[in-house]
Amino acid sequence: MISLSIIFFSFSSAVALFLLSYVVYHVIIAPRFDPLRKLAGPPLNGPLHNHMSPVLDPFRSPKTHAAYVEKYGRNVRIRGLGPWDERLLPLDPVSVAHVLKNSTIYEKPWQSRRLITSLIGCGMLAAEGHVHKRQRRVATPAFSVQNMRALVPLVFSKGEELKDKWMNMSQAVKEGQVASEKQDSGQVEIDVCHWISRATFDVIGLAGFDYHFNAIQNESDELFVAYKEMFEIAVSQGDGVRTVLGIYFPIINSLFPDKRAKTVHRCQETIRRVAGKLVQQKKTRIMDGEKSGSAYTGKDLLSLLLKSNIATDLPPDQRISDEDILHNINTFMFAGSDTTSLALTWTLLLLAKHPDMQTRLRTELLSIVPTTPISRLSPEEIESLHNTLQNLPYLNNVCRESLRLIPPVHSSLRVATQDDEIPVSYPVHLSDGTISEQKSISVSKGSFVHVPVEAFNLDKGMWGPNAWDFDPDRWDHLSEDVLSLPGLYSNLLTFSAGPRSCIGMRFSMIEMKTFLFILLTTFTFAETNKRIYKANVVLTRPYVSGQFKKGSQCPLIVTPLESIATS
User: Fold this and answer.
1) H-helix or E-strand spanning residue 560
2) % the chain with pLDDT above 70
3) Contact at 8 Å (CB) between 306 and 282?
4) Of 509, 492, 512, 452, nearest to 89 (Cα)?
5) pTM above 0.85, yes or no
6) For residues 410 and 114, what is the distance between their CA atoms, to the nearest angstrom?
7) Alpha-carbon distance 41 to 27, whole Å?
8) Pairwise CA distance, residues 400 & 396, whole Å
């Protein structure tokens, strides 16, 4: 009995000593040899102080990044969560391009991947390495130019449905069913963030797997409620400390589930049941079509994914499972609805703040409005209208400027999977106060690199002294510095760059331009007396001052053009 006690005590002591040694090494010893410590960076106010809040808060981050560049150069050392977490903040275009291009060296940290996977599964947002490469290869054909064009009539129909819904709300004001100070004009206050989110959910539901959420009309569909609750309640309103604990110790959520964990679990059960059934139904239709010689003609992303996955030119070892396909549909739901709806919301707010630019854009859009109502146009006529829409110069400028000024993704994080040398194109400021002409920066395996999407888009050194202003005309005379910036879309990091750039960029732009066309040729948009501010809650979202707990909101005064014309 004594010998067993001694053995247990010795084992426990050994484990405790190992853990203590591990902590001491990683918290105290290893950081002293981190090459990033040689870089200049902002001071710390104590051993537990970090720089995350000023870097991540969109209210403060533009000034923070500008101050860092001026004081510490374009490759800055910042403190993450603790003394062991020294991070590189690159504001040098060559350095950022290297990180985003070499996606096998710089991956998303396991913590980020675990959080994403716990919500929407291991789709393209969370997958890395050969898993991501295989999923992307299967999905790429679904996002071809031809397949995206086939979805244009669908987007127009949902834009028209949203327009009609808002017209009905305006008519209710005119008829006195809803109280309004300007009853005769049909002027109504609308939370455009809420309603555009419902519309983009409808679009991605049909485009993603041919499913009718009917979210514009009501919010009762169980699959819509499941996605919406999971994305908004579980993500946006989650407890930060509990979320972090759940990432490092997942068993906590299983043994002691809080409201967030219970919500996610319930929503995931609904998604697996309803969406999983859709996957099997689509798969059966495609297989039946193959057997009968009459190919299934579904154009939704799920059908295209399933077809691509069984293509004869795809080796069996490159195919993905039905579970992976469902995870990627979840990914498209999140990325295809939330990011696009936020981009549209911010654009309408910016145009409300700049009525002269709104009028100028509306004039351009009205010049191509067909004499026949859109609802009566054939698919070919709608595609022709969309082709014209795509080439409108001021609309292009407005979209690019909005996506530059307020990118839905504020920043992202990467971790080095091996030691690396990151090239630089600007002198490097060192911690001893000197400035080096070295050609690269050493990064150790395990070091975090903070990719500052917003900072890159707002860099006054690249975009000029008015970089923080909304100026669509800047796109008519870009500098050479801007033209050399990395980015999938118009030298912006909004859709990222490199192998992990946004696969749905084309579809997002179709949605954005189509909705702007339909809404701006029907309504005018003006600010209310409520102050709207930006907050980085997974994505950059609008909130009404003093009403953060109510979630994302962006109320605007919406007035039908016909009311203005007759007044």
Assistant:
1) strand 555-560
2) 90
3) yes
4) 452
5) yes
6) 20
7) 19
8) 6
Q: What is the largest CA-CA distance in the chain?
A: 97
Nearest to 187 by CA among 518, 542, 555: 555
Backbone angles phi, psi at 58, to 5 degrees: -65, -15
Paired with 156 in beta bridges are none
Residue with the two structure tokens 């006195």: 176
Check: CB of residue 346 under 8 Å from CB of residue 542. yes
> What pLDDT digit, counting tens, does each position of 221-277 carry?
999 999 888 877 656 555 667 777 777 788 888 888 888 888 888 999 999 899 889
* Strand duo 86-90 + 448-451: pairing: parallel
The span from the CA of 352 to the CA of 152, in Å, is 27
Amino acid at 395: L
* Amino acid code (one letter) for 364: E
121-170 pLDDT, tens per residue?
A: 898 989 999 889 988 988 888 889 999 999 999 999 999 999 999 999 99
Q: Report the 3 state secondary structure along 274-291.
A: HHHHHHHHHHHHHHHHHH
Dist. CA 120–CA 268, nearest whole Å: 8
| Distance, CA of 193 to CA of 184 (rounded, Å) | 25
Instruction: Tell the residue number behind the tokens 């697996």, with chain if given.
Output: 272
- What torsion, rounded to 10 degrees, do the Cα atoms 155, 160, 165, 170 define? 140
How many Cβ atoms from other residues are within 10 Å of residue 97's Cβ?
A: 20
CA 311, CA 474: separation in Å to the nearest integer?
45
CA neighbor of 486 nearest in space, from 506, 515, 459, 468: 459
Q: Element (H or E) spanning 236, and its range? A: none
Instruction: Show the tokens assigned to 519.
Output: 């809404």
Residues near 10 by beta carbon (within 8 Å), at least 6 away in sequence: none
Nearest to 111 by CA among 81, 88, 132: 81
Query: What is the C-alpha to C-alpha distance for residues 198 and 192, in angstroms, rounded to an integer?
Result: 10
Measured from the Cβ of residue 345, the count of other Cβ atoms closer than 10 Å reads 28
Residue type, 353: K
Q: Find the length of the chain.
A: 567
410: its two tokens: 């504020």
